[in-house]
Amino acid sequence: MSNDRPQKVRPRRGVMFVISSPSGAGKTTLCRRLISEVPGVQLSISATTRPARPGEADGSDYHFVSQDRFQEMIDRDEFLEWAQVFKNYYGTPRSEVEARLVAGTDVVFDVDWQGARALKTIRPGDVVSVFILPPSLAQLKQRLEGRPGASEKSVQSRLDGAGQDILRWGEYDYAIVNDNLDTAFTELRAILMTERNRRVRAS
């Protein structure tokens, strides 16, 4: 009679799926679709000092905090990473992310290149990074102009920043040109599925 007992399968460690793009290139839409259509994926909810936009909810889209509260969180080392973008501050709460990874949940990060670089430096074994490129700057301008409340000044400011953002795409593991949303989503989902199967992530 064998004394061997079935080995308990430990849950795999989740993937930190980091997605960046210039403002208006479609990363937020793609992130939300990934979360809604792929089981076992959740969005990392960032803390920010910027005001909520119409339709955004605290704790669902972002943790909206004051600058004083954000500084307290920095002082207490509560962020995996944080950065200043367009006069506002954004940060990734450490405890929420770690709990999800240990549970085997893949966590999607909708962050800029500074956040992506910081996360990859801090957790190189956990991070898979994807950069979403617009088909052209002309099309990016059209998308930005079509946003509710867009002004000529705000559009130009984001276009100026987009050029610098695009220069960073080579730092990422993958790049996707978002010429067609369905095609870009299919590519993004395929990357996540590949990384789930390819990487051994023990908790």
Task: Please characterize this protein's 3D structure.
40% of the residues lie in helices and 20% in strands. It has 203 residues and is of the alpha/beta class. Helix 5 packs antiparallel against helix 6 (152-166). It is globular and about 40 Å long. The mean pLDDT is 83.
User: SSE string, helix = H, strand = E?
Assistant: EHEEEHEEHEHEHHEH
Give the low-confidence spans: none
Largest sheet: 5 strands, parallel
Work out the helix count.
Answer: 7
User: What proportion of the residues is helical, as a percent range?
Assistant: 25-40%
Number of strands: 9
Beta content comes to 15-25%
The overall average pLDDT, rounded, is 83
- Overall form: globular
| Cα distance spanning the termini | 32 Å
Taking strands numbered 1, 2, ... along the chain, how are they ordered across the largest sheet? 2-7-1-8-9
Output the structural class.
Answer: alpha/beta
Radius of gyration based on Cα positions? 18 Å
Features:
203 residues, alpha/beta, five-stranded parallel β-sheet, four-stranded mixed β-sheet, 7 helices, 9 strands
SSE map:
Elements: E1 16-20, H1 27-37, E2 41-43, E3 47-48, E4 63-64, H2 67-75, E5 79-85, E6 88-93, H3 94-102, E7 106-110, H4 113-122, E8 127-133, H5 137-145, H6 152-166, E9 174-177, H7 181-198
Parallel strand pairs: 1-7, 1-8, 2-7, 3-4, 8-9
Antiparallel strand pairs: 3-6, 5-6
Q: Brief overview, please?
A:
With 203 residues, the protein is an alpha/beta fold. It has helices spanning 27-37, 67-75, 94-102, 113-122, 137-145, 152-166, 181-198; strands at residues 16-20, 41-43, 47-48, 63-64, 79-85, 88-93, 106-110, 127-133, 174-177. A hairpin with a 2-residue loop joins strand 5 and strand 6.
